[in-house]
Each structure stands twice: as structure tokens, then as C-alpha cells.
Write a structure and sequence with these properties.
Keywords: Membrane, Transmembrane, Transmembrane helix, Transport
Membrane topology: Multi-pass membrane protein
Organism: Terrabacter lapilli
Subcellular location: Membrane
Shape: elongated
Largest sheet: 4 strands, mixed
Main location: membrane
Strand content: 5-15%
Number of helices: 10
Oligomer: single chain
Number of strands: 4
Length: about 350
């Protein structure tokens, strides 16, 4: 005897060694009839966990992500254009490196925008889990843009070391660096806050990327100050320092994005889920818990032990309670599949 509950996604993978398995979804908001007949009807009648509230919440989350990338694209675009105007008259390679990076940072909002829009589409017969993975794929584009900006910035800095050129309008260069810092830090705070609120690793990583850009913009001030003091090499050296900073951001961003693509989750989430499931009345043991991120949502599967003498209907009720507790206590968890198995001495 076994009972199986699918929280938000339906499937038909029935293990052959089970005496019985049922596979349907449930609406947390509906009222269950009392008595044996009501319990049996609840066990075999399909109904949906995808309530209007959960659907609206998912749509609101994606809409919030789209709003975040729109605003950040606008702010960083204005910042980069202002810096580019100063580069054209000053010839500062440090400012050019920072401007290139700011442009690339602004462009990373485009694939994230597309990914959030795709994530709002309903699941299909081909893409049965929906389109949430588009967000993770957009993270790869973010990594590629960071890598490209590092190569371009490094190339310009080395070229300026080998072929020195004067830097004009140092006051404007310093001001442009300050503008770059303010613009990037504003976007960083906004992206990180919104990304954490909706559970988007790609958006959070892009926020940290913007924050590092902001501090490298401040480094432009150092280069301008060095040139003003007669250190002609200060400008290209600061350009190289910015390149190193970009490479460090690349390492962190690549780690976070690739970890998502490899279905990596915080081990603390798994431990917390195991504790939650172990406390469900009727559960005698937790066999396994598996979790994965799909975009900014978590999906989970769990296998539980119940007493061998537990009836099918009661085992179903235990699985239903376990799924509800898991979704309620786990941040960003939207879908869960809970299996209940008879335990044997």
C-alpha cells in the first residue's frame, strides 16, 4: 500500500512495486466532506491545488521581475551614456573600461526581461514544467556579458600602457566616475532587493554585478587624481584594476548561475524540509527530500514512511498534510510531490 500526492503538477509515474498509487492535485481552499464516504471521495476525485491566489502570486512575481529589469535598464543606460560623452572628450581609458562594463551591465537586463516574460506562460505538453528555466538560461548570458566586458576593458588598458596618451578634462572624468557609482549602486540595491523578494538568483547576481561596477567607477576617481598629480600610468593601471574586479564578479556570478542549472539548493532548505516532514502526525520516517530551482520557484519531491497498518485513505491524508506543511514553511516552494510508503519493522 502506498499513497502519493502531487501538489501542483500532475504526472503518471506509478512505481510497479506499489499495491496502489493515486496521482492528482488538490485545492487547499475547498471543503472536505466528513465521514467515510466523504474521505473516500476526496481520495479519488481530482481537484486542483492551483488556486486563483497561487496563480495570481506567480504572475505578480514575474511582473515584479519585469518591472525591476525595466527600471534598472533605464537607469544604467542613462548612466553609461553620460559616461560615454565624457570619454569622447577626455580619452580616459579607466573611464572607458568602466563605461563598457556599464553598457554590458545594462544589456543584461534584456535577456532577464525576456526570461521573466516567458516564465509567465503556462506549461505545455512539451514543456510540462513550464518555462521557468528560461531565467536560468538568461543567467548564462549575464555571465557571457561579464566575461566580454572583462576582455574589452583589459585590452584597452594594456593598449594604453603600451601606447600612452594624454587624458584631458580630469574634472569631468572624476565627475563621470562619481555618476557611475551613484547609478550602479542605485541599481544594485534595487536589483538585489527585488531578486531576493522573488527568489531570482539571476537578478540577485546581476545586482551584485552592478554593485561591483559602482565601486570600480569610484576607482576612476583614483586614476584621474593620479594623472592630476603627474602619474601618467595611473589611468591604465586603474583600468587593469577594473578588469581584475570584473573577473572576480565573473567568478561569483558563474558559480551562482551554474549551481542553479545543476539543480543546486541550499542544504539548509533540505534540512528544514526534513524536519518539517518528520513532525507531521503519522509520519514514521523521512526517506528522502529532493529540491530544485526552476527559475525563481522551488519544486520538491519527498518520500515518507507511515505505519504499515495505515489505511490507504489515512496514508493519503498524511501525504496531503505533509505537502501542505512543506509548502507553507519553505520559502519560494510552489510545487511538491509527496509519496507515502508503508514502513516495515
Amino acid at each position: 500500500m502506498s499513497a502519493r500526492l502531487h501538489g501542483h503538477e500532475q504526472g503518471h509515474d506509478h512505481p510497479k512495486d506499489h499495491d496502489h498509487a493515486h496521482d492528482h492535485a488538490h485545492d487547499h481552499a475547498h471543503d472536505h466532506a466528513n465521514g467515510l464516504w466523504g474521505r473516500l471521495r476526496h481520495a479519488v476525485t481530482p481537484h486542483s491545488h492551483d488556486t486563483a491566489d497561487s496563480i495570481d502570486s506567480a504572475l505578480e512575481t514575474s511582473a515584479r521581475g519585469i518591472r525591476a529589469v525595466k527600471i534598472s535598464l533605464l537607469v544604467l543606460g542613462i548612466t553609461a551614456i553620460a559616461q560615454l560623452a565624457v570619454v569622447s572628450v577626455s580619452g580616459s581609458v579607466a573611464l572607458l573600461a568602466d563605461t563598457i562594463h556599464n553598457f554590458s551591465d545594462a544589456l543584461t537586463a534584456v535577456p532577464l526581461w525576456i526570461a521573466f516574460a516567458l516564465g509567465r506562460r503556462a506549461a505545455t505538453r512539451r514543456y510540462t514544467y513550464g518555462y521557468g528555466r528560461a531565467e536560468d538560461l538568461a543567467g548564462l548570458f549575464v555571465i557571457a556579458m561579464i566575461a566580454l566586458s572583462a576582455v574589452l576593458a583589459g585590452w584597452e588598458a594594456v593598449d594604453r600602457l603600451l601606447h600612452p596618451a594624454p587624458v584631458a578634462d580630469l574634472g569631468w572624468v572624476a565627475l563621470a566616475g562619481l555618476v557611475g557609482f551613484i547609478g550602479n549602486e542605485t541599481v544594485a540595491v534595487f536589483r538585489i532587493r527585488e531578486g531576493r523578494a522573488i527568489g531570482s538568483a539571476a537578478l540577485v547576481a546581476d545586482g551584485h554585478h552592478a554593485r561591483t561596477d559602482g565601486f570600480t567607477s569610484l576607482a576612476v576617481l583614483v586614476g584621474a587624481g593620479g594623472v592630476a598629480l603627474g602619474w601618467g600610468w595611473a589611468d591604465p593601471v586603474v583600468g587593469l584594476a577594473i578588469t581584475v574586479a570584473i573577473a572576480l564578479v565573473l567568478r561569483t556570478a558563474a558559480r551562482d548561475v551554474l549551481r542553479r542549472l545543476m539543480d543546486g539548493v541550499d542544504p539548509g532548505l533540505v534540512e528544514a524540509a526534513e524536519s518539517t516532514l518528520a513532525e507531521v502526525p503519522g509520519v514514521t520516517g523521512v526517506r528522502s527530500v529532493r529540491m530544485r530551482w526552476i527559475g525563481h520557484e522551488i519544486h520538491a519531491e519527498a518520500e515518507l514512511d507511515v505505519h504499515a497498518a495505515t489505511s490507504l485513505v489515512d496514508a493519503h491524508a498524511v501525504a496531503h498534510r505533509a505537502e501542505a506543511d512543506l509548502v507553507r514553511t519553505t520559502p519560494r516552494l510552489t510545487r511538491a510531490v509527496v509519496h507515502a510508503y508503508p514502513s516495515h519493522p
